[in-house]
Each structure stands twice: as C-alpha cells, then as structure tokens.
Amino acid sequence: MIIAANLKTNLTRKETKKYINEVDAYITSCNSSQEVLVFPAMSSLDTYKSSVVVGAQNAYPTDNGAFTGEIGLTHLNEFDIKTILIGHSERRHILGETQEELVKKFNYFKELGFKIVYCVGEPLEKREAGKDVMMEYISTQYEGIDTQYENLIIAYEPVWAIGTGLTPTLDDIKDIHKELKDKSSAPLLYGGSVKVANAKEVLSIENVDGVLVGSAALCAEDFCKMIEFAEELS
Fold it and tell me: Which family, according to the similarity comment (predicted)?
C-alpha cells in the first residue's frame, strides 16, 4: 500500500528532519514493505537519506525563470526530488489553479518521469446534487490527464471532508473508488479527514490502495501507526 503525508504549511526544516528520521527509523525497525511518501513544506525540502520518499507539494512547470514565489525543476533537482503532488483541492479552490494549468504542470513533470500524485474530488454542493452530478464534476478533473501514465498515483479527496473531521461512509468510499478504478488502473488513494481512528477501516476497503493524510499525519507516531495498519492488511 501507499501511505502518504501532506504536511502542507506546517513543520520547520528542523522539525521536518526530525519527523522524517522518526518515520524512517520506524520503517527500518519493523522492515515495513509499504511505500511511504512525505510532502514537506517548500522551505523544508532537503536531501534526506531515508527510505521515505520525499516529494514536492507544488512546483512551476519550468526549469527556472521569472516566476516570483514559485520553485522550478532546478530546485527539485538540487535535492533529487522526483515526486510531486498535483491538483490538491486547496490549490484548486483556494489558490485558483485551473484544469488547464494543472494539465500543463502534469505534462511537464510526466515528460521528466516524475511520480505524480494527482488529486481529484468534489465540494459538498456537488455531492448533495446527486451521484451523476458528482461524477460528472470529478470526470472534468481527469480531462487532459494521461490516466495510463506508469508513474501515476490518483488520490480521491472529497473537498468537504478535508480538515473538517467529516468523512464519507465506508460504503460511499467503496462506491466511488470502484467508479474511479474504471477511469484508471493507477493506484488509488483515499484522503479526507483520515486519522488513526479510521485509517484501518479505510485501508480495508476494496480498491483503496492507500491513504493521503493531512493534519492527522503531523504527528510522526500517528503516521507510523497508519503504516502499521497497512502492513497488517498487506
């Protein structure tokens, strides 16, 4: 399974190093076979000698240039980073990234062979409008994306569940993961208020190939517990 932590705008460089070292020590001590990804804040990117795969939460589709506030391929190469998160709902809905921009970013990093964790999901009003409307909305987020890309991981995150403590029912997660598996054979993660209390149940659901965890992953001990659950289920 794939267990991923999106640290968002949290943890300093020093705190992130401690976090990754703790997670790496746990993986090593129990000889875990799970694929573990961590996406630190931009200022905490570094070269980590670890079994943990460190990825970027975002980057501009360029080598370098006049793009104030962004980082490019040159910066990722400095730390040998080959994994990136694209399409997270916070970048879509708060920072206004369009599908056209995401496709450009996706294609740029695809050509470079990056592992891409591509996020899709719906806001509450789309879910409440019924399954057909919800699926039509999610389908638009697949437009222009190579769903057969060999280094693709898809993360389904219901927008209304992120950071709210609310989660779809287990049956809801099972149903939508079945639908999304028909769109791509890529590994499919669930994200949206995943925490220690529900992670094992979520990981047990058919077609759930792992989880993408936000605030509940900020505690290394809790994140390691989720890795343990995945190991038990493998």
Answer: Belongs to the triosephosphate isomerase family.
Mean per-residue pLDDT of the chain:
95
Query: Crossing angle for the helix pair 170-181 and 196-203, nearest 10 degrees?
Result: 50
Question: How far, in Å, CA of 153 to CA of 209, rounded?
Answer: 10
Catalytic option among 90, 157, 177, 228: 157
Residues 145, 111: contact at Cβ < 8 Å? Answer: no
Give the distance, in angstroms, between the CA of residue 73 and the centroid of all CA atoms in the same chain.
19
Question: In the prediction, which pLDDT does 234 show?
Answer: 87
Q: For residue 206, indicate whether it is catalytic.
A: no
Q: How far is CA 96 from CA 16, 134, 157, 185, in A?
A: 27, 20, 17, 28
Residue 154 zone, left/alpha/beta (φ > 0; ψ -120 to 50; rest):
beta
User: Which of 88, 122, 177, 228 is the catalytic position?
Assistant: 88
What pLDDT does residue 144 have? Answer: 97
Q: Is 157 a catalytic residue?
A: yes
Higher pLDDT, 150 or 131: 150
Q: What is the DSSP string of 122-168?
A: --HHHHHT-HHHHHHHHHHTTTT--TT-TTEEEEE--GGGTTTS---
User: Domain map of the chain by residue range?
Assistant: 2-233
This prediction has a pTM of 0.95
**Range 2-233 classified under CATH 3.20.20.70:** yes
Is a pLDDT exceeding 70 seen at residue 6? yes
